[in-house]
């Protein structure tokens, strides 16, 4: 298998650490230009694959004909690279799913996938239960309400800083209440799961979202309720935060790992 990864942050490096136990044949990594030389020297790479290529050019990466591209670099990187990968006919795992809250980008991605023949794969990421939600939404209208709770530090550098004094919170506080579209747009590094739920269920404008800063939170809690004529269910996940990036739950890393296995294994679940 030839695996290509866009980004070299917490998720990318953690996935490579996991790959060391079962390396891929070829690995291509797309970094920012300033990071290329440093990444090339990282020993994680040679443990994760038999042949390694590091580049700062998407065209160069695609010229190697990867079997699967995994984006784990953020919303801006989705805009820059995702349409190209899909147009080239390569399957693309999109971790920064919240970028699809932008209707024009979402449409462009679909058109690129149709034109090129590559599949746009939306992984479960930090959340679970997407299989049931997506299935129930085929039976009729679904109502979905999501609550995302993280420690105050995970909300630094976001609009939450304007809503509350994150450093001096003594109790949990709702820092956002609105639609999945607003949440994914305003919190691009924290509310991708809201977008995942929206795409699997009621859509970006009907999925209700509450984001909460809680000084007592030990990790990232994702909870949601689904109701429809075919049934109802509630999910609550208490995720450990990644040691390298507290905003990102460890589960996200293994959700990417699962998609890699789904591409290379004969039996998939
Ligand atoms: N679907 C889900 O459930 C979840 C999705 N996510 C998404 O995954 C993304 C990545 O998470 P994580 O790995 O923890 O974040 P990190 O910030 O640790 O890593 C992101 C990496 O991407 C690099 N990068 C950013 N823009 C570009 C670009 N244009 N070209 C090449 N590299 C680029 C960054 O480089 P630099 O440091 O130089 O900026 C950094 O190395 C998040 O931003 C979020 O959107 C996260 C958690 C859950
Ligand atoms: O990793 C998480 O817990 C969720 C997250 O950051 C996101 O949805 O963007």
From TrEMBL:
Q: What is its EC number?
A: 1.4.1.21
Name the Gene Ontology biological process terms.
Answer: NAD+ biosynthetic process
Which InterPro entries does the annotation name? Asp/hSer_DH_NAD-bd, Asp_DH, Asp_DH_prok, L-Asp_DH
Origin superkingdom: Bacteria
GO molecular function, one example?
NAD binding
Task: Enumerate the residues binding NAD(+).
Answer: 126, 192
State the UniProt keywords alphabetically: NAD, NADP, Oxidoreductase, Pyridine nucleotide biosynthesis
**Aspartate/homoserine dehydrogenase NAD-binding domain: residues covered:** 7-123
Domain (Aspartate dehydrogenase): give its ranges.
Answer: 172-256
Query: Where are the catalytic residues?
Result: 222
Q: Which reaction does it catalyse?
A: L-aspartate + NAD(+) + H2O = oxaloacetate + NH4(+) + NADH + H(+); L-aspartate + NADP(+) + H2O = oxaloacetate + NH4(+) + NADPH + H(+)
**First and last residue of the signal peptide:** none
Biological or metabolic pathway of the protein: Cofactor biosynthesis; NAD(+) biosynthesis; iminoaspartate from L-aspartate (dehydrogenase route): step 1/1
Instruction: Fill in the misc note.
Output: The iminoaspartate product is unstable in aqueous solution and can decompose to oxaloacetate and ammonia.
In the record, the note on similarity to other proteins reads: Belongs to the L-aspartate dehydrogenase family.
**Job of this protein:** Specifically catalyzes the NAD or NADP-dependent dehydrogenation of L-aspartate to iminoaspartate.
Protein name from the UniProt record: L-aspartate dehydrogenase
């Amino acid at each position: 298998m030839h695996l290509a990864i866009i980004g070299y942050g917490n998720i990318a490096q953690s996935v490579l650490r996991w790959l060391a136990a079962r390396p891929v044949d070829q690995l291509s990594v797309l970094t920012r230009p300033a990071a290329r030389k440093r990444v090339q020297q990282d020993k994680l790479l040679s443990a994760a694959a038999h042949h390694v290529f590091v580049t700062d050019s998407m065209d160069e990466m695609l010229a190697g004909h990867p079997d699967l591209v995994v984006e784990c670099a953020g919303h801006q990187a989705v805009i820059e690279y995702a349409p190209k990968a899909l147009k080239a006919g390569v399957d693309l795992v999109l971790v920064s799913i919240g970028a699809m809250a932008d209707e024009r980008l979402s449409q462009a991605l679909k058109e690129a996938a149709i034109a090129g023949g590559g599949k746009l794969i939306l992984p479960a990421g930090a959340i679970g239960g997407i299989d049931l939600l997506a299935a129930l939404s085929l039976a009729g209208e679904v109502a979905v309400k999501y609550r995302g709770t993280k420690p105050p530090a995970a909300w630094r550098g976001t609009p939450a800083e304007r809503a509350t004094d994150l450093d001096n919170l003594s109790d949990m506080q709702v820092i956002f209440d609105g639609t999945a579209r607003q949440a994914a747009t305003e919190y691009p590094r924290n509310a991708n799961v809201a977008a995942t739920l929206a795409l699997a269920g009621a859509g970006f404008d009907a999925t209700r979202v509450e984001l909460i800063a809680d000084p007592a939170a030990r990790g990232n809690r994702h909870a949601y309720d689904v109701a429809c004529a075919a049934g109802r269910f509630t999910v609550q996940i208490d995720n450990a935060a990644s040691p390298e990036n507290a905003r990102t739950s460890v589960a996200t890393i293994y959700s990417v790992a699962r998609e890699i296995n789904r591409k290379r294994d004969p039996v998939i679940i």
